From TrEMBL, chains A, B:
<dbReference type="Pfam" id="PF07940">
    <property type="entry name" value="Hepar_II_III_C"/>
</dbReference>
<dbReference type="GO" id="GO:0016829">
    <property type="term" value="F:lyase activity"/>
</dbReference>
<feature type="domain" description="Heparinase II/III-like C-terminal">
    <location>
        <begin position="397"/>
        <end position="651"/>
    </location>
</feature>
<dbReference type="InterPro" id="IPR012480">
    <property type="entry name" value="Hepar_II_III_C"/>
</dbReference>
<dbReference type="InterPro" id="IPR008929">
    <property type="entry name" value="Chondroitin_lyas"/>
</dbReference>
<dbReference type="InterPro" id="IPR008397">
    <property type="entry name" value="Alginate_lyase_dom"/>
</dbReference>
<dbReference type="Pfam" id="PF05426">
    <property type="entry name" value="Alginate_lyase"/>
</dbReference>
<keyword id="KW-0732">Signal</keyword>
<feature type="domain" description="Alginate lyase">
    <location>
        <begin position="99"/>
        <end position="322"/>
    </location>
</feature>
<keyword id="KW-0574">Periplasm</keyword>
<keyword id="KW-0456">Lyase</keyword>
<dbReference type="GO" id="GO:0042597">
    <property type="term" value="C:periplasmic space"/>
</dbReference>
<feature type="signal peptide">
    <location>
        <begin position="1"/>
        <end position="26"/>
    </location>
</feature>
<protein>
    <submittedName>
        <fullName>Alginate lyase family protein</fullName>
    </submittedName>
</protein>
Amino acid sequence: MKIKKVKYIKTLQAALLLLLMSSLHAQEHPSLILTKQGVKEIRSQLGKVPLFDASLVETKAEVDAEIALGIIIPLPKGFSGGSAHERHKNNYQVLEKAGVLYQLLGDEKYGIYVRDMLLGYAKMYPTLPLHPEKISYARGKLFWQALNDANWLVYASQAYDCVYDFISPANRSIIEKDLFRPFADFISVGSPQFFNRVHNHSTWGNVAVGMIGIVLRDNQLIDRALYGLKEDGLAAGMKDNDGGFVKKEGQKAGFLANLDEPFSPDGYYTEGAYYQRYAMYPFLTFAQALQNNKPDLKIFDYKNKVLLKSVYALLNLTKTNGEFFPLNDAQKGMSYYSNELVSAVDIAYLYAGKDPSLLTIAKQQGRVQLNNSGMAVALGIKNNLEKPFVKKSIDLSDGSDGKQGGVAIIRSKMKEDELTLVLKYASQGLSHGHYDKLSFSFYNNSTDVLQDYGLSRFVNIEQKGGGNYLKENASWAKQTIAHNTVVQNETSHFGGNFETGSKFASEKYLYDVSNPKVQIISANENNAYPGTTIQRTMALIAQDGFEKPFLLDIIQLDSKTVNQFDLPFYYLGQLMSTNFAYETPNNLETLGKANGYQHLWKAGTAILTVDNAKVSWLNEGSFYTLTSITQPNDEFFFVRIGANDPNFNLRNDPGFIFRKKNVQKATFVSVLETHGNYSPVSEVALNSYSCIANLKIIYEDANYIGIQIKSISGVETVFILSTENNKSNQKHHLIIDSKTYEWTGPYYK
Amino acid sequence: MKIKKVKYIKTLQAALLLLLMSSLHAQEHPSLILTKQGVKEIRSQLGKVPLFDASLVETKAEVDAEIALGIIIPLPKGFSGGSAHERHKNNYQVLEKAGVLYQLLGDEKYGIYVRDMLLGYAKMYPTLPLHPEKISYARGKLFWQALNDANWLVYASQAYDCVYDFISPANRSIIEKDLFRPFADFISVGSPQFFNRVHNHSTWGNVAVGMIGIVLRDNQLIDRALYGLKEDGLAAGMKDNDGGFVKKEGQKAGFLANLDEPFSPDGYYTEGAYYQRYAMYPFLTFAQALQNNKPDLKIFDYKNKVLLKSVYALLNLTKTNGEFFPLNDAQKGMSYYSNELVSAVDIAYLYAGKDPSLLTIAKQQGRVQLNNSGMAVALGIKNNLEKPFVKKSIDLSDGSDGKQGGVAIIRSKMKEDELTLVLKYASQGLSHGHYDKLSFSFYNNSTDVLQDYGLSRFVNIEQKGGGNYLKENASWAKQTIAHNTVVQNETSHFGGNFETGSKFASEKYLYDVSNPKVQIISANENNAYPGTTIQRTMALIAQDGFEKPFLLDIIQLDSKTVNQFDLPFYYLGQLMSTNFAYETPNNLETLGKANGYQHLWKAGTAILTVDNAKVSWLNEGSFYTLTSITQPNDEFFFVRIGANDPNFNLRNDPGFIFRKKNVQKATFVSVLETHGNYSPVSEVALNSYSCIANLKIIYEDANYIGIQIKSISGVETVFILSTENNKSNQKHHLIIDSKTYEWTGPYYK
């Protein structure tokens, strides 16, 4: 990679910045995250605040073990999961912790450790070429990608700040000249395609440069961090190795641009919760540093407090057990127990008015940051201030202006049990986006009922493609058929084309959770398949005669051409029964040839002749039944993921698909019931059958659709949606089967 | 079914019994499980013993809700999981509880409830024909099988005993004449094929008759229960609908015969833990009743205290979390949290010298029986008497004489982590046995590493074949290929023939756990394939240079003919890597046509050319690597369960198979390493690679096999087994590669 020389043009903006810089608050060390005054306060509380003390003991044990092991700085080599990568990663984490321990405990050994480690890196760094692994669009020197180098600098800056006064001026000079300055330059001016983006990568890059800039009192670096490189020589339309845009026409860069653009006004980060979690640490840590050093910037108030809102958005984007909904590229299992969220919750607590509900999350996390925000939280818990963190239904807008669709989370809680619907009608989500407009996932407490597959990658597991994205991520996980949404003619939304997908977002039609017994989200997607309009409406309805709320799903498709439409449901667990016959083949073939279909085994097939097709299954002690309205000659497939997977990278999870062929208009209607339970210890099966006697479309025209649900116990539910007029004060009048329905607003129930 | 008239011949034995009967201890009610004196003691403790009180509150809430619901006695219909079946089942459970509450709380409403329920049954019972479902070899009247009728009577007898004094003599006369007496006769003299077996079914039948016999002071019934029907008219060789023997030549019957025969001297029950658990309730409850009423019988001392030993055997047959190893037909997930084990632990505590380690189990169970044994346990816990229940390595013999092979459990515990090997070298295990000689399963704490599939049945889930055994139980779950053991020529052990299998057991060759770092089980099987001898030796070895103990597996096969040998390993989780190339097919075909092979999809194939084949996988946060010694042209298959499964009854779990073709002698050697960990929250993969550089057979002849394991860090382990001489004092001398090995006993390490 060629290191580009960039000339700095003194713009008006920069001049303004320099003015601001002059007010750089603290001129002492530490001042970045820990402050001199803060350390004094923390020291006075040591031994008195259980959660803080416990976190301190844990950290001390970890760092002491590392000190006993000795400093190891291997030559850079290999991918994540490999020993050199993991050692450098471990080093920066321990560096930061040792720095903090030096401040809090005043023990020289931690100062010595940080100093010697930094001197070690300072000795090696000037000798380093680009990292030998060549697949990244922005290679690092310590790591295979500049991203990890930036991670290193974010942590090492904090360590250096803590131990600054301990290190002799001569050694400081070595460390700054041979390590920090060239490091910061390399990941910024030396890697503009990495640094000057709107992306979680560049956020890390910006913050790394900004953090060391503050420690070094270098306004130029801080300027670079906040506003990006003034000139980067990058061509608009350039893409990275994941297929994401490096530069879009007219795009701003730097930390503030990374706050402006990917965050919606609601605090939703367009890449999805998994990457939002990843970016939280640099975003909030740098914000804390800016607050300590440039309080005039009022960074926590920026964009109507979007940073703090983003913490709440993330906490809401979780299952009952705190695991994030796996929207877009997301490794399942990641949760608010991650270090990034410990830090985020602590910082949000301190800077967002000490919301006592955050203490409940912190208490679950069981540890705090070793700084003033962590102490504030630990004190709050010590003083029993916590209140429940209640996750309510929430509609999170996407897009910097909040107008690029969104993600609706609808929750229904009965006693201890919670059902959660997540409907995604967002924008593409940058390079980590999936082609899954109007897809949904559904959860029974923390159990995936109808799952989102997540990504195809084993993060940091070297055996699996160096821990990087696997090719099945593009060929399967990103494809539309991998999601619980409609596929037209076996092709993905936007033809699976990233540029096209990035131009559009779905549009909200209706989000109404004012009645806790009928919570609705409805959205339109008119661009995924040109010439075809899709409206999906999902309602979580609590109804007498049903043990738990059921999920009503209505999809109306209208196309200018004749198409095949597939609607998959990826369940988990064991099939219990169907109310129709199906065939299972002697040999398994794939369902199709491309666009993800090549990864599906066709495990069973049926031509449906029933009015209502029922599929029941058992998963983790609960029964589920999906009842669907079907038309004669609708096709049905049982599928299993895992075909054309030569390295067994995919999970072999099951699903089933409803198919309508040769249609211009099509309507899919189904109801998912969550019912009963089974324990292998008691061996008792309770309420193991569906309560639905009949599901029927009783009305459908250009303006309305009416659904009738008859329960076995005789309860009749009618749900009517006004499909073209969503005004809340609109009066409607409709006669169905000689019965008159009159109501105000977009739906009748 | 014809009710057979049986004449009672007064034998010497019966005369003796009548003598014993005269000593029938208590002549008052209650006397069966609760006693008048016992009730007095319990009442004096109410409100003072937390665990007992909590169990009482829970039971009261349940019974009160049932009383509020009212008595429902439906006409018998349908299988388990169906509403009539479940209602009758619920009724007998509530009956027993209501009886106990009547005694403990003295509230008439419980007496009224029991009385009225029994009168209701007494009204219906005389009108009942055989149950309409016809598939059982021994149909009941209330339920589809007499087994469930017997369940009913075991519980109802206890209820009647508790409420006996409350019910008027006139009503007692109705209940006894129209219900209990004909009921007891029907399941005994009316169902000899059910009553006169050695089987968990007949145990229930015997106990039901014995319990009501004690309540009614009817020595004839008690005689029948203890010793079976003197004449039953059954033909030797007759089988039930599961294919199990009803009668073998010369077989004794009755409760004592059911204690004599299926229990080994170590307390292992030949059907396996799952059915042992099921039988525990009648065995121990009736024992308690006999102890209360016929203490001279000293039933708890019978066969060297086998009943009490059986409780310990069961507690040892569990994973770390208390779930039973799924030997033979066994539904996974069943555990010592079941009601049967609550009762078993309580009774064992009271009658086996108040072993404080049982209190630890009882505390985990979190509830006790509402009788004197439960009170004893609750008092022990209240007084903090409990000591840890330590599960050690244990070798449980099978067979009434302990000479029908056995089940070895080898455990290795490091800090909080426990690895467990279960090697089965037992007898057939009656009708619930599987054809799986020398099969094993392996556990990392409670995670199945190499699994035993268990049964193919969804117990009490009506949608799945009425909750009964599914046909895949015979075609898959019982077959040899479904287990981690050797298959010759794609046929199951004993040709899958139950009669043949029932004649043989494997023979223990060596069980030695004296050195906690080298724990060994070795057994021979010479009858599964006539003309072929199999010796399998498994050792759990803790070795420097390895994070955790590894499992060494040596199988030596010697045949008179040329054969194909398959050795499957059923892992769970995600494949990480192999050190050899393999092909994956475009379409999936089955691995074979019959004997379980028709249920396996062939997901990948390889012809091996490496000396050591390595397969690594990740499951629930741990890595595993199996390293196998292979010879040129050995074949390898990745398989997945689920072919020819038209109702999706099977779990689609993965496995891999090593195949050696056209060989007379064959040796399979492999080492399973449990290593490292991965968390999706920290995203750190630790120690994710195998430590083995090379695995080699360094010596093999008719008397010895020597294995060398070289670790990557340079540690060399040599293990030598004397394969024909297992004497512990035998001296051995062997030269391998010019190095002399001298040792005493069957193995060198």
